[in-house]
Design brief:
With about 150 residues, this protein is of the alpha+beta class. The protein has one domain: Alpha-D-Glucose-1,6-Bisphosphate, Chain A, domain 4. Helices cover about 25% and strands about 45% of the residues. It is built from three helices and seven strands; from the N terminus they run E-H-H-E-E-E-E-E-E-H. The protein has a seven-stranded antiparallel beta sheet with strand order 1-7-6-5-4-3-2. A hairpin with a 7-residue loop joins strand 4 and strand 5. The longest helix is centred in the C-terminal third of the chain and has 19 residues. It is globular. The protein starts with a strand and ends in an 8-residue tail after the last helix.
């Protein structure tokens, strides 16, 4: 089990940072070799299911996730989303908060616990380091102040 946390500041208002972070398909644009498909109809809510498919050619795996807590930011109150990873290869959870931090900006707090089947526990530190860097880049890219590329 690899547990990691990080925080990112953005000049985006909390509502906009939240909107970008919860545009699930866009996560696939930021994670190499990954495509994200939402399997439940919008809008996102508790019970929404989506799958991140990571693959190189015919080799790959699905990372199905379910939203189990959904509280968008409102005014000065932070937003919180928790995902449970329901896969057979990757399990665990991820949660993030988006907190207003100034009149124009916000802070994203991300924490995640990952278990990768067949990966010995001795590699948990390496997995946590790599995942923190990868997901930190995802948050950076999704909350960049320039309009997102379509």
């Amino acid at each position: 089990m690899a547990l990691f946390r990080f925080a990112r500041k953005t000049s985006l208002p909390a509502a906009e940072a939240w909107r970008r972070l919860t545009a699930w398909e866009r996560h696939g644009e930021a994670v190499p070799l990954t495509r994200v498909t939402v399997r439940t109809p919008p809008p996102t809510r508790v019970g929404t299911v989506f799958v991140a498919r990571s693959a190189l050619g015919p080799l790959g795996f699905d990372d199905p996730m379910e939203v189990v807590d959904w509280r968008p930011p409102q005014g000065a109150s932070p937003g919180r989303c928790r995902l449970e990873k329901r896969g057979s290869f990757v399990t665990g959870w991820a949660e993030f908060e988006v907190r207003p931090s100034s009149a124009e900006g916000s802070t994203v707090l991300w924490q995640e616990e990952l278990t990768v089947r067949w990966l010995p526990k001795v590699f948990d530190g390496v997995l946590a380091f790599a995942a923190r860097r990868m997901f930190g880049r995802v948050v950076d890219r999704l909350t960049a102040t320039a309009p997102p590329r379509t």
